[in-house]
Structures are given as C-alpha cells and as structure tokens.
Design brief:
The complex is a heterodimer of chains A (177) and B (629). With 177 residues, chain A is an alpha+beta fold. Chain A is built from 8 helices and 4 strands. In chain A, helix 3 packs antiparallel against helix 4. Chain B has 25 helices and 19 strands. Classes of the chains: A alpha+beta (177), B alpha/beta (629). Chains A and B meet through helix 3, helix 5, helix 6 and helix 7 of A and helix 2, strand 11, strand 15, helix 18 and helix 25 of B.
Chain lengths: 177, 629
C-alpha cells in the first residue's frame, strides 16, 4: 500500500511538482502569443514526465494553458510519441530492447520470461506498482545484446532460463529491505 | 575550467600550437611534449559505460594516486573505440597497448604491472581467436587493420568533454578557413566537388542540398542536425556525438555559413542521455570560447545551436516529419515538394543533414577535396561507418572506405560468424532495407551497388544472420516495427502493412493459403508505389527482399508447414529421443508447463497437448536427446 502512495500525486507533492514545471516553462521564455509557441511543447512534456513520472490529464491541461494552446493539441502529441505515457509506470521500469541486434539474439524469449515471471504484459504495471515492462527499439548497446535496462542500470548478454529470475530477485530483495 | 575566447583564425592557430601538448602522447599527436608520461584512455561510450567503465576510471585514478603517480599519469574517458564486443576497452599511450574486457578490479594490476613494473597484463590483451596469439597494439588487431577513420577520427582519441583537446586535434580550423578564406559559394562548390553524399540513408549529394537552401532569399534560415537515429542496430551517430561532439558543432556552423543561417538545431533521441549530456557540454564550451554566438572568430558571422529532443518516433528520422516534430506537432511527414530547402522549419529555408555527414565536413575542408576523392569509389566517395551486430564475432563500429566488400567487413574485420555457424544473410538499411546473401558477399559496397542487389545503404546498420535465423520471421519482425512506427496518416502504410503482417503471421503459423505469396507480392508493390513518405515506400522491402532470396523458405512454410531454422513455434514439435535420454530429469524439472513425464533413469516423454514450445527442455538437455521436428 505504501508504494501505491508514491505513484499517486498527493496534494502537497503536486503543488511542488507543478511549481517545478512552471519554473522550467518560465525559464524557456515562452511567448504565449507567438505563432511559434508550440515549438517548446515536446521539451516541456519531457520535463513534465520527468517530474511527475507520467502525463496525467491535469498536467496536460496545465501545459496547454501555459502555452495558450488547446488541450487536444497536447494530448495529440502525447499519443503520437512512444516516449510519453499517460499511465504511471512501476517503481522499477524494465525496458527490454527489441532492436534487430537483440531480436536475432533471442530478446523475444527474454521478454516472454519477464512477462511470465511478473504476470503482466509489455506496457503493463504489476498490481503493487513495483514493476512495469516496456519494449524499446534499440538502446544502442548492440555489443551487449540482448540487453535490458531497469532504471539507470543496464543488463547485457542475457540468456533465457535463469538470468531473468536472478535479476528480478535482486530488485525484489531490495523491496523487502 | 575557464575558457578564453578566441577572436580570430590566427589566434585559433596559435592556440592549436600551444595546446599541442595535450595530445602529445597519443598517436594522432602533434609531436609536442606532454606534461604527463602516460595517458590512460578508457572507453566512455554507452556500451562500455553499461559495463561499468566509469568505475574502471575511478579505480585507476585511486590506484595511481595511491602509488604517487598522479603527476605522471592521467586517466581520461574518451568516446567509443568501436570494438564493443571486447569492451570495456582501456588504451595506454604512448605504449599503444590495448586492453580488452577490463573489469574495475583489473585497475590494480594495470597500475602495478604495466605502469610500475613495465610489463604487460597478459590476460587483458586481445587474443587472436584462430592463432591464439596475444596482440598488444590496436593497429595490429585485424578488427582495425582495414579501417580508415574519418567520421570517427577523434572517437577514442580525445576527451569529448574538453574542447581544448578538440582544438589540439585541429578542431575549428575548417571553420576558421571557411570564415576567412572562402565565401559561401566557394564553400558550397568545394563540398559539391568532394562528392560527399548524405550518410543517413538516401545518399543525396550534400553540396547540392546546401546550394538549394542557399539559393532561397530569406531573412531567416535554419540548419538541422538529424540525430534521431531510429534504425535499430545502428549506433554510429550516437558514438560520434558521444566521442566527438565538437565536430558536429563545427560542421553545423560551417553549414550555417554556407546557406546563410544563424540558428541550428540538433534533433536528438531522448533515449541517448549520454550523447545529449556531451553535446550540451560541447555547445556550452563552444559558446565560451567564441566558436558559437556572435561574431565568430571576428568574421561578423553569428551562429548558435540548441537541442531539441525526439520522443520515440522512428518516422521522425524523415526530414519533413522531423521538422513537424521540432515545431511541436505530431511527427507526420508532408509531401515534397516543397522541399525543406525552400520551406522547412517554420516555413523558412532549412537544411537537414545527418550526424555522420556533418562529421565528414571539417576534414574535407582542412585536408582538401583531392584527399577525400582519393578514398572510395567513383560515385561514392570517402568512407562509411557500419554498425556490425547480430551473429558475428566482433560486434562493433567499423569505418571503411566505400567500395570495401561485405566479405572483408564480415570476415576480415568482423571475425566471421559466431559459434562457427554458416553465414545466411546480412540485413542492411534497417526496416527500409533488404537482405544480402552469400552470392553477393563480394559486391563492393556503394550506394548504387546496394540498391542494385535489392538492399540499401541506409544509416549503416548491418545485422548478420546465421543458419538458425528464419527469414520469414525476420521479415515479420521488421514489419512489426513498421506497424508500430507508421504514423497512420496515409492508408497504404497504415492499413496495407497491417494486412501484410497478417499474411506473414498466417505463414509462420502454418495457416497460409497456397496463393498467399502472390498476394503478398502484389500488396507489397502497391504499398511501395502509393505511400506518402519514405517510411511507407520502403516498408515492404524486407519482405520483398527475403521472398526474392529465400523463396524456398517461404514455400516450405506455406506448403510443407515446416520451419527449417526451427524458429516458428507453431510449426514445430519437440520430441525426446528415447535412445539418447538417460532420464536425468533436467527437462522435466525445468518445464514450465510440467508436461514432461518419466521415471528417473528412464526415457522421458513430452505431452504434446500441453507443450507451449518454449524450448527450455531443448536448452537444458545435456545429452542432445531432444529433437525439434
């Protein structure tokens, strides 16, 4: 239960987060009358996702108001790009590279094992909000194929039948501690 | 670090001479004496950083300090050495000793044995796999022998976070030369004469692109660096940005001078945090030193660069889509004409070039057109960087002269196929490209030749496949990628590729009708002819090329319901050979379905109705008692 709270935005934390986002937007010197004001939208959404972890509707409308554009324009951009998400991710987001180099070295099997171990599909979050799985296209570490990243950590040259369990147990232990 | 502004080209040349000592110990050095006795260069590319190379730097530094050598030896993090297979890599100069697969714990031995003892740490030297001979120097390693490094010239040589090292490596001299000795037309003519063609895929002559943008009269113009390297398996642009970011700053500024622009943008993938970080440093230092901003080197020319992040859309590698994305829109391509050179970002003339193309510009200007023309073939000049990946021994980045054959790249540089398996095909050009088979291994690589044999240069990803890869499945994989990435604006790409994918799925499931192959070909042809942008027009290429070269595999799937490579799960069954099974129970214990039964020391059996064909039993069996049929 405790973990769920970190992913829901409480009122106090929300204000702080919105303040932080506003600071960033103000630092860009956006002119809300300029025909080019939308040019900063994607950079702002990156920052917003960095602050909030995802892009819920409140954040979208806030950004739209700040840039003096329609909410639909903001949500249209978010839905187009894979990087943006409107759903919260798990505390440990597992990105599994399915680029070609990883694919020919069996990354699809690694993905299957993660899905089975966690009981979720790619794009979903576990109920306790601890883990989520994402499929990504090439992290550019083809020398380490098949490769996955969990947060900032990179795990490479994975083999089916063992490695996945080992990695997950590292993070699960962390949860218990 | 306080950086002093450089106010003129002669001042830059003076600074270059004064800074020569920085590279004094390295091969490309200026022959000047360094203040250190040794430079230890540790690879700081994404691959090696993922394998903990940062810790190697820390450990080396603390060991060196503990031995009181910190005035004599410096440890630096450089860009990618290219030999990712053997990373992390540590190079010791001026000894030119190349250590591979170094762990943080090896720091002690490197300091004690190499730096103090004067011997080599044998176990960290590269071993030639055939002769089992240790090789000490990088230039003697077969992986490097046939390479010529132009775009990657500074990667693995300089510290990418210190602009002074870039200046010591002749950095910004091309820009200085342009600003003081050439007008924009002379500069464009020079690039046209060099024969440089776009390295991002299409191969359009760079000089002509510049000329087109320069011709339009406009108070505002833009230069864009396309660093949205979306092609899976290609990582040369990332390595250049991580290893030599200042060269991109310099080349963009030169382009700005040529076309008359004063603002540039680098559109870079958000998935490349390290490249973004290094570029930010390079831009900041360039501003401080006066290589960006107002009145560059006293010439009166102003230019600045800002970063724009991509957000994970493959189609944004297409220039019109990229421009829409910078404008803050959905990255949907628009019809050409008008070309960006006429009406690009915010509807003003814009020149978009790829990272690797930019990296070639400064050396062409400093070393001259004749030099560049002497490398490569008649129509494809210079070099090309390829990212070798897949079932090959030496995964990594290689830069070879145009005209090198695939055989040289795969066998001489790449060290052949992993695990002694048979070569089947190499895929170039990513989701837009095609396969090249054994028969064409000796084709010299040029833009024209690759197109002629049904593939394309693309951005330079080369995925090597062996006999255990099913080509139908590979085609399906690429199509899944296109399906994911199709922006949905035009119907042929949005719906056509979906139908193509359904047909391929039917084939790999063994449910395809006899005439599926014909329908597949016809639909692919329609998609190619009627899609709006490059993504759709090339999306059926992997399918068409695999049908062309591996038709028998398709026919086997459709007619005989067989997948020879043993990849398509729905076409195969696992059996336990009773004469080979000794009843060790390894398979039964690991079977996730618990569908293998049998007594200890007795042959086991698989219940086919429950088997999900995961292949775990096949991997776990040490007695080759499991067969795939």
């Amino acid at each position: 239960m405790e973990n769920k709270a970190t992913n829901c935005i409480t009122e106090g934390a929300a204000k702080e987060m919105f303040d932080k986002l506003d600071q960033f937007i103000d630092s860009l010197g956006v002119n809300s009358c300029s025909p080019r004001r939308k040019g900063d939208l994607i950079m702002i959404l990156h920052q917003a996702q960095h602050i909030f972890g995802y892009l819920p509707e409140e954040v979208q409308t806030h950004v739209a108001r700040k840039l003096n554009i329609q909410h639909s324009e903001v949500s249209g951009v978010i839905s187009f790009y894979n990087y943006f998400t409107t759903e919260p991710k798990g505390k440990h987001n597992i990105s599994i590279c399915l680029g070609t180099a990883c694919f020919v070295k069996g990354a699809d099997k690694i993905l299957e094992e993660f899905e089975k171990e966690l009981g979720i599909k790619a794009g979903q979050v576990t109920e306790d909000m601890e883990f989520s799985i994402d499929v990504v296209r090439c992290v550019g570490a083809c020398g380490l194929a098949p490769v996955i990243t969990i947060g900032e950590k990179v795990f490479g040259k994975l083999k089916p039948g063992g490695d996945v369990k080992k990695i997950l147990s590292q993070f699960k232990n962390e949860v218990k501690e | 670090m306080k950086l002093e502004r450089i106010n003129s080209y002669p001042e830059l040349l003076e600074r270059y001479k004064a800074l020569g000592y920085l590279l004094g110990l390295r091969e490309e050095g200026t022959g000047q004496k360094s203040t250190f006795e040794r430079d230890i260069l540790v690879c700081g590319g994404t691959g090696c950083v993922s394998s903990n190379s940062t810790k190697i730097v820390e450990n080396l530094q603390s060991e060196i300090k503990a031995c009181g050598l910190d005035q004599k030896v410096q440890v630096l993090k450089t860009g990618c050495f290219g030999f990712c297979e053997k990373g992390p890599i540590v190079l010791i100069q001026p000894d030119n000793v190349f250590y591979v697969q170094v762990c943080p714990e090896d720091a002690k031995d490197i300091v004690e044995q190499h730096l103090i003892g004067g011997t080599r740490v044998e176990r960290l030297l590269y071993e030639e796999p055939l002769l089992k001979k240790k090789i000490e120097k990088s230039k003697d390693i077969p992986f490097y022998k046939k390479q010529i490094r132009i775009a990657l010239r500074n990667c693995g040589v300089i510290n990418p976070e210190n602009i002074l090292e870039y200046i010591a490596a002749q950095g910004f001299q091309a820009l200085g030369k342009c600003l003081t000795e050439m007008d924009s037309q002379q500069l464009i003519d020079l690039i046209k004469k060099s024969g440089l063609r776009g390295r991002g895929g299409g191969g359009f002559p760079t000089g002509i692109k510049w000329e087109a943008a320069s011709k339009y009269d406009s108070p505002e113009k833009f230069v864009i660096c396309n660093a949205d390297e979306g092609d899976p398996g290609a990582f040369m642009d990332r390595s250049i940005l991580e290893g030599d970011p200042c060269s991109i700053v310099e080349a963009m500024t030169i382009t700005g001078y040529a076309i008359g622009a004063s603002q540039g943008y680098v559109y870079i993938r958000a998935e490349y945090p390290l490249a973004i970080h290094r570029l930010q440093i390079a831009i900041k230092q360039s501003r401080e030193i006066g290589m960006l901003g107002k009145n560059i080197m006293g010439s009166g020319f102003d230019f600045d660069i800002d970063l724009k992040f991509g957000a994970g859309a493959f189609v944004c590698g297409e220039e019109t889509a990229l421009i829409r994305s910078i404008e803050g829109n959905r990255g949907e391509p628009t019809t050409k004409p008008p070309f960006p050179a006429e009406s690009g970002l915010w509807k003003v003339p814009t020149c978009v070039n790829n990272v690797e193309t930019f990296a070639n510009i400064p050396p062409i200007i400093t070393k001259g057109v004749e030099w560049f023309n002497s490398i490569g073939t008649e129509k494809s000049k210079g070099t090309k960087v390829f990212a070798l990946a897949g079932k090959i021994n030496n995964v990594g980045l290689v830069e070879v002269p145009m005209g090198t054959t695939l055989r040289e790249i795969i066998y001489d540089i790449g060290g052949g196929i992993r695990g002694g398996k048979d070569f089947k095909a190499v895929q170039t050009g990513g989701p837009s490209g095609g396969c090249i088979t054994k028969e064409n291994l000796d084709t010299p690589i040029t833009y024209e030749n690759l197109t002629a044999i049904g593939s394309m240069m693309g951005s330079g990803g080369m995925i090597v496949m062996d006999e255990t890869d099913c080509m139908v499945n590979i085609a399906k994989f690429y199509l899944e990628f296109t399906l994911d990435e199709s922006c949905g604006k035009c119907t042929p790409c949005r719906v056509g590729n979906k139908r193509l994918h359904e047909m391929l799925t039917a084939i790999t499931d063994g449910k395809a009708e006899e005439d599926t192959l014909e329908k597949l070909g016809a639909l692919a042809d329609t998609i190619k002819k009627t899609s709006l942008c490059g993504l759709g027009q090339t999306s059926p290429n992997p399918v068409l090329s695999t049908i062309k070269f591996f038709k028998n595999e398709y026919v086997e799937h459709v007619r005989d319901h067989k997948c020879k490579a043993g990849v398509c799960k729905n076409l195969m069954q696992y059996f336990i050979l009773s004469d080979k099974c000794i009843g060790c129970t390894a398979c039964a214990r690991n079977c996730p379905q618990n569908c293998i039964t049998g007594k200890v020391k007795q042959p086991h059996e698989i219940d086919q109705s429950k088997c999900i064909k995961c292949g775990v039993c096949y991997q776990k069996c040490k007695f080759s008692a499991i067969e795939i049929r």
